[in-house]
């Protein structure tokens, strides 16, 4: 009897508390949803640069907005949009405030009045996108970071301010550009840019660092329909399209890799090549992927880019070629070495004292070294014809201004002065370069001495 009575009281208690528990659970879910509805970031939210920095994540977890440390210095940070769930180091898509790094305890704040404010450790503002009265921010699954009004209208979006990369569903609008970074681990504005011009043409340029002065155009789409834009189609194709959406020209394509299963990005790389990359999305079986190049333009930048001003694809006194994977690989010629091995765009320096122009000393201490299939086009200061290869080398050796001469093997000889530019090497280069180097160098001289 007593047991039955206790059981009845227990049932009554459970029935009494059940509505309260359900109400509490529903309230908790509602509160959680209210704190981050659809992945939105509320006003008065803050991110701080520190060893384990926090970030704002897209609903799928594919993309994040926050501070990430520099690859070369874990105590300096970039504010960036990046791929959040790749096992390798983060691949950066956008840096809102480029050419500046931030130290520990820098912050980005979505203020109470709806401004996005990037601040240094002292709290002083260093950048904002000039937007007020945003109701919330959001890191979207497209990779677009937005500031939005209460009705969902975008007041500012990262897709409208690309750096060196575009993503599926993103456009490069008329009079907008992509600028390559200086090096894989140097995110400052680099030596190449792509411009979607108002006349409808998409143009690739080499540019001066740090002013951005345009050197030479080295590739274009040969299109001229005004107000066209570059559009990254969700099928995995990057097209120049008209204002009405008509495809005018295809830049790159990777439609065999579904955007549902692969990340796609189009990036103007530090070597001036625009590459269409894909990366398999993380799988439940733990398979690790890597970025793979599916398409690129131009097809051969070593041949495509020749400039009258600037160094060319590679730095001064170096030459352009390709590694085993087809990526651009700059090299120093015989008798030269890198100014900075980690920054090869700075070019190469001679490993010998430069020639003197004192009478009778022009060729003292120097010899000529022959290198087949190497040329430094343009920038000649003298030309001879007819001249055989031996005389071509000797003419440079006897000239204190000459650092190299080029022979085409059929009577033409060109003299080059310092620094050398537009260097290119390959089987298709049907010329021989004669380089003037110090006699103490271990390289064999030209012509070879008789044994």
TrEMBL record:
Signal peptide: 1-27
GO annotation, biological process: response to other organism
SMART domains: B_lectin
Keywords: Signal
Domain Bulb-type lectin: residue ranges: 40-160
Top-rank lineage group of the source organism: Eukaryota
Pfam families, per the entry: B_lectin
InterPro entries named among the record's database cross-references: Bulb-type_lectin_dom (IPR001480), Bulb-type_lectin_dom_sf (IPR036426), G-type_lectin_kinases/EP1-like (IPR051343)
Name listed for the protein in its UniProt record: Bulb-type lectin domain-containing protein
Source organism: Vanilla planifolia (Vanilla)
């Amino acid at each position: 009897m007593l047991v039955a009575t206790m059981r009845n009281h227990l049932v009554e208690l459970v029935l009494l508390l059940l509505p309260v528990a359900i109400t509490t659970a529903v309230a908790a879910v509602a509160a959680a949803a209210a704190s981050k509805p659809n992945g939105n970031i509320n006003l008065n939210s803050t991110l701080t640069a520190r060893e384990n920095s926090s970030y704002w994540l897209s609903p799928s977890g594919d993309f994040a907005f926050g501070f990430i440390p520099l690859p070369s210095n874990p105590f300096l940070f970039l504010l960036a949009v990046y791929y959040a769930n790749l096992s390798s180091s983060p691949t950066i898509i956008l840096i809102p405030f480029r050419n500046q790094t931030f130290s520990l305890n820098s912050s980005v704040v979505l203020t109470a009045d709806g401004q996005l404010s990037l601040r240094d450790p002292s709290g002083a503002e260093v950048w904002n996108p000039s937007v007020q009265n945003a109701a919330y921010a959001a890191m979207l699954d497209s990779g677009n970071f937005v500031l939005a009004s209460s009705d969902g209208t975008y007041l500012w979006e990262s897709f409208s301010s690309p750096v060196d990369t575009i993503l599926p569903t993103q456009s490069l609008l008329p009079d907008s550009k992509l600028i390559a970074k200086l090096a894989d681990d140097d995110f400052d504005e680099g030596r190449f840019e792509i411009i979607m011009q108002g006349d409808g043409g998409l143009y690739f340029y080499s540019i001066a660092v740090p002013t951005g002065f345009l050197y030479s155009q080295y590739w274009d789409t040969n299109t001229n329909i005004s107000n066209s834009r570059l559009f990254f189609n969700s099928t995995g194709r990057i097209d120049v399209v008209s204002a009405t959406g008509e495809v005018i020209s295809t830049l790159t394509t990777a439609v065999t890799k579904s955007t549902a299963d692969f990340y796609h990005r189009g990036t103007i790389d530090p070597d001036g090549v625009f590459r269409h990359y894909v990366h398999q999305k993380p799988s439940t079986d733990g398979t690790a992927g890597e970025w793979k190049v599916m398409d690129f333009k131009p097809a051969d930048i070593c041949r495509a880019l020749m400039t009258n001003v600037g160094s060319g694809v590679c730095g001064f006194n170096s030459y352009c070629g390709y590694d085993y994977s087809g990526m651009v690989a700059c090299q120093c010629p015989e008798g030269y070495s890198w100014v900075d091995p980690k920054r090869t765009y700075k070019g190469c320096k001679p490993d010998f004292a430069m020639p003197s122009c004192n009478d009778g000393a022009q060729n003292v201490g120097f010899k000529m070294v022959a290198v087949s299939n190497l040329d430094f086009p343009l920038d000649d200061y003298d030309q001879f014809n007819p001249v055989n290869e031996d005389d071509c080398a000797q003419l440079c050796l006897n000239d204190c201004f000459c650092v190299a001469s080029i022979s085409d093997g059929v009577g033409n000889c060109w003299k080059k002065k310092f620094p050398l530019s537009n260097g290119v090497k390959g089987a298709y280069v049907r010329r021989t370069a004669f380089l003037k180097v110090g006699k103490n160098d271990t390289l064999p001289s030209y012509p070879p001495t008789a044994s």
